[in-house]
Amino acid sequence: MAQGTSTAVVGLQWGDEGKGKLVDLLAPAHHAVVRYNGGANAGHSVVVRGERFSLHLVPSGILHPGVLAVVGNGVVVDPEKLLDEVRGLEARGVDTSGLVLSSRAHVVMPYHKTEDALREEELRTAQDSAAAGRGVLRVGEIGTTKRGIGPAYADKAYRASAIRVGDLLRPDVLAGKVEIACVFKNALFKGLGGSLPPCDPHSLTAALLEQGERLRARIRDTTALLHDMLAQGKRVLFEGGNATLLDVDHGTYPFVTSSSCSALGIGPGTGVPMNRIGSVLGVCKAYCTRVGAGPFPTEQINEAGNRIRERGREYGTTTGRPRRTGWLDLVALRYAVMINGVTGIALTMLDVLAGFDEIPVCVAYERNGERTDRFPPDGHDLREWTPVYERLPGFGQEITGARSRKDLPANAAEYVAYVERAVGVPAQIGSVGPDREQTIHA
Ligand code: IMP
Q1: Are 411 and 401 in contact (CB under 8 A)?
Q2: Which residues, at least 6 apart from 223, have a Cβ–Cβ distance to it below 8 Å?
Q3: What is the widest separation between alpha-carbon atoms in the chain?
Q4: Is the dihedral of CA 111, 112, 115, 120 positive or negative?
Q5: For this structure, is 31 an active site residue?
Q6: How crowded is residue 410: how many other Cβ atoms within 10 Å of its Cβ?
Q7: Ligand 1 pocket test: which of 10, 36, 41 has the largest number of ligand atoms within 8 Å of its C-beta?
Q8: How far is 352 from 398, CA to CA, in rounded Å?
Q9: Does 208 contact ligand 1 (Cβ within 6 A)?
Q10: Distance, CA 274 to ligand 1 centroid (Å)?
Q11: Any ligand 1 atom below 6 A from CB of 43
């Protein structure tokens, strides 16, 4: 059996852990960087020599000439957004010739974004006190990015009316699919949206064909391409979008996204089997954040939480929403390390914690006198548990200038060592600021 020489970089919390920076650091040692899940809901920020790039669909490897940037089949692609992103990168002098796109990837259509917003609105307004009186627990809104991600993946599972990137080059197939999709969507919009203008299959098809022409040179069988590269001994880096606790199967369901964000999604999302992956770098912040609705046991809606938000500039890359903030949750982190088969962690944003007298970390959950260190499999269930904290001594000094572990104040170094012991894998990289240089290598 082939042994893995490839690397995976995955988020271990609820996203925004700083994966973009890690991929950017590791990309030069690889021949391709591959996205395998999600879509324009993901936002990766990379700062290169003080210049900030916000990437949504284009893999972060694009910033390295000579490295292929592959959008795998598991991604849902909004062609308009992708073309915009490419244009923006080119305007800033980035060579995008290495960007390729799987013909098997699914297309996010304008009606998916409308549907996403309509469903969220329906979930929001469907909260009624009568339900609570009957002991009925409403899910409420998911707090999606409204990028059409859920409806695009749902249509993928529905099959017949789903549009794949390859269809953009097949006018006959495309027209038939768009026509049937519009029948379904118009019925839905009539029921839920009322006054929304109906989808017009002709204009939609025309726009997609035009986008297809602009993307034609980039559309490939990326599964074959990746296997050819691997057969030639080339190294591939898989870049997870979103993060483990948002994984549709293994996250805090139903408060998750609609794709397989953990390393487990690499197989279905690229066609490359797990035994090709040699190391899995799990990226986690030294604290936690979450955007959108859903359980967050260690959330701090207080001065400490505000301080983390401001120091960490915790505002969404994709939506600009203020992120919810809280202490590090080691129950969730241990679970994420297990699910992903993490071989090493990258602990990011450690600098943000400077100045706290003490830093609480969650070591277990408690409910009605019962204590557990297992992460509950259900989002609603998770809400009922409260965190049990251990308080670690804080560090007063700023650490953005640290470049090795020995540059860290003793309490900061001990914080890292504590996390390593708690999750059972080494911290291979530490990040103390957004710039490439603000990095601690093990
Ligand atoms: P969706 O992916 O737009 O359907 O949103 C589902 C949930 O995932 C919402 O809570 C979003 O805020 C969250 N989400 C999706 N992508 C990201 C991400 O890249 N970072 C953080 N949260 C995300």
Answers
A1: no
A2: 73, 102, 104, 270, 271, 272
A3: 66
A4: negative
A5: no
A6: 9
A7: 41
A8: 9
A9: no
A10: 25
A11: yes
Ligand 1 contact via 262 beta carbon (within 6 Å) = no
Residue 37 in contact with ligand 1 by CB distance below 6 A: no
Residues 351 and 408: beta-carbon distance below 8 Å: no
How many beta carbons lie within 10 A of that of residue 171, not counting itself? 14
Residue 38 CA to residue 258 CA, distance in Å, equals: 8
Cα distance between residue 32 and residue 53, in whole Å: 19
Model pLDDT for residues 242-285, shown as the tens digit of each residue: 999 999 999 999 999 999 999 999 999 999 999 999 999 999 99
Active-site residue among 30, 31, 44, 112? 44
Residue showing tokens 């080339």? 234
Q: How far is the CA of 242 from the centre of ligand 1 (A)?
A: 7
Per DSSP, the three-state class of 33 is strand
Kindly indicate the confidence band of residue 1, based on its pLDDT and cuts at 50, 70 and 90: very low
Question: Structure pTM?
Answer: 0.95
Residue 37: closest CA among 65, 68, 5, 9 = 9
Is 142 close to ligand 1, i.e. is its CB under 6 Å away? Answer: yes
149 CB under 6 A from ligand 1? yes
Beta-sheet pairing, 219-220 with 99-102: parallel
187 CA to centre of ligand 1 in angstroms: 27
Q: Where are the alpha helices (DSSP H) in 126-270?
A: 129-133, 149-158, 171-192, 201-215, 222-231, 266-270
**One-character DSSP codes across 36-73:** -S--TT--EEEEETTEEEEESSS-GGGGSTT-EEEE-T
Which atom of ligand 1 lies closest to the CA of 246?
8
The two tokens of residue 117 are 């917003």
Which residue has its alpha carbon closest to ligand 1 atom 11? 144
Residues in the chain, total? 442
Locate 132 and state its tokens.
């609570």
Phi, psi of 353 (to 5 degrees): -80, -5
- Is the shortest distance between the CB of 145 and ligand 1 below 6 Å? yes
And the tokens for 315?
Answer: 């505002």
Residue 186 and residue 152 in contact, taking contact as beta carbons nearer than 8 Å:
no
Q: 345: closest CA among 22, 20, 2, 5?
A: 22
Decide if 16 is catalytic: yes
Query: Containing H/E element for 84?
Result: helix 79-91
Phi, psi of 47 (to 5 degrees): -110, 120
pLDDT band at 223 (very low <50, low <70, confident <90, very high): very high
